[in-house]
Structure formats: structure tokens, C-alpha cells
Amino acid sequence: MNSKLARRLLPPRKSDSKKGDNGTVLVAGGSRFYHGAPILASAAALRSGSDLVYTAVPRSIVNPVRAFSPTIIALPLPDDKLTVGSANRLVAMLPKHTDSAAVGMGMSIAGPESIIAVVRKLKQAGTKLLLDASALIPEILPEISGTGSIVTPHAGEYLRLFQSNPGKTEKERLANVSAVAKRHEITVLLKGPVDVVSDGKKTGVNRIHNCAMTVGGTGDVLSGLTAGLMTRTAPFHAALLGAYINGVAGNLAYKKMGLHLMATDILDNLSAAMKPFDRIN
């Protein structure tokens, strides 16, 4: 992945577009202990160029989420853990159409049936899906297989989700990611020293990032950014663009902060990372 390809893959914005034309995103995540993950993902989705972001979090943390920014539309869920009842409540609160959803960041779930309920209802609504963190459980594979949905595991989450190790060498990871993506007809973004992205037909890598990006929250930024991009382009392209742009922003933050950067520093540099690719029709 490089800047030339990124410019080609990133769709231009229409000069006469109105609110909603550039994407509506749902971020569902968070728990009593992890209020930051859905905030980072939501802010990144907005920085991606999306027009509207709805953020569904437990009622116990809705106030700090709202306090972060007036641009976040926070939807309070009744339980600290995601339950089937919370899933039903969430879908009932959503606008008529949501283009994409990022689910799982910082989330505590009551059981697999809770994530299944959310995914099933969003699928029925025609929403494109990105699953991360707590949503990456093997029980969800039958629900997303054949949908083109994006999953964004690190190596440990990959093992939990697919019940197989992605491998240690780059060659092994390329082969394994491509195979599981093809088998399930989804897009896999395996995070690591080299990010591997595949939809089973096409496979790409991203090498743009730095060792300071191991800090907590960078994956949440990546998920929100990718979900935002997915409102306007194909899942494979969104995942490849997300990994690259997140890395560029991370490198810009590294130049300023060195090894002391935080995920919010990456968030603050997303607009600068994307600006060279801005186009208007």
C-alpha cells in the first residue's frame, strides 16, 4: 500500500453533497471500565469524512462519552454488558438507515447470542459491518460469512475467531489470511508488524506504522476510521486504506511525540494524513 494507490482508492466528495451523502456510521462498544474505545472509534469515523456518527454505549458511561465532543451522538444502552435486550434497544434507536457499523471496541458482552442479535439485525437493515475486539468470537462466523464484512483481529484475536494460528512469517500470514477470508467470504485485516488485508480474492499489505503505535487505543482509531471509509468504498479497499492512513497518522504523531504518543495523537493527525488525498467532484 502506498500514497499513489490510496489516492486512487479514496472516493472524491461531491461538491453538491448534503448531510448523509458521505456516510452514517454506528459505533457500538464500551463498558463500565472502557469508555475510551468507542470515543476513539467514533472520532476517527468522523475524521474519515463521514457525516454522522451514532455511538451506542452503556448508560453508565454515556455522560463521559457525550462530554468528549458535541459531535458525538450518544445512544444509551440499559445494561453494562451487551445483552439481547440491549441489542433490540440499540436497533430501535437507530436512524432509518446506517451505512456501516463498527461493533465490539471495549465492549463487555453477556454471551455470544448478544453479538449475534446485533449483527443479525444490522444485516437485515443493510448495514455494512466491521467487527473488532469483543465481537471477534467463533460463534459469529456463520452470521457474517458471505457478507463481505470486515474483521480486524490481532494475532490472539485471530486465533480465537478462526481457531487457527495466523503464522509467524509474512508468507504464512499472507497465505492463512487469504484462505480464511476466501472460506468465509469476508475481509480480514490482520494487525501486526505488517498488516495483512484480504477478501479472499485480493490480498494487500501495509508496512506504514511505527513501534510506538503499540499503545492502547490505536486499534480503536483504526476500526472507526475503516468503518467510516467503508460507507463510501468496498470493504477490501476500506480496510487497506484504513490500515495505511492510520499508519501515516501514527508516523506524523511519532515525529512530534517520539515513543510517547497516545492514541489521541494519532486521532489528531488523521486529517493531515488524509488531506493529500482529498478530491472534490
Tally of separate domains: 1
CATH architecture: 3-Layer(aba) Sandwich
Helix content: 40-55%
What class would the helix/strand composition place it in?
alpha/beta
- Which CATH top level class fits? Alpha Beta
- By oligomeric state, this entry counts as single chain
CATH superfamily placement: Ribokinase
CATH overall fold name = UDP-N-acetylmuramoyl-L-alanine:D-glutamate ligase
The side-by-side strand order for the widest beta sheet comes to 3-2-1-4-5-6-7-8-9
Detailed description of the structure:
This protein is an alpha/beta fold and 281 residues long. It has a single domain, classed as Ribokinase (UDP-N-acetylmuramoyl-L-alanine:D-glutamate ligase), CATH 3.40.1190.20. Helix content is 44%, strand content 14%. The protein has twelve helices and nine strands. A nine-stranded mixed beta sheet has the order 3-2-1-4-5-6-7-8-9, with helices on both faces. The longest helix has 23 residues, at 235-257. The chain is globular and about 45 Å long.
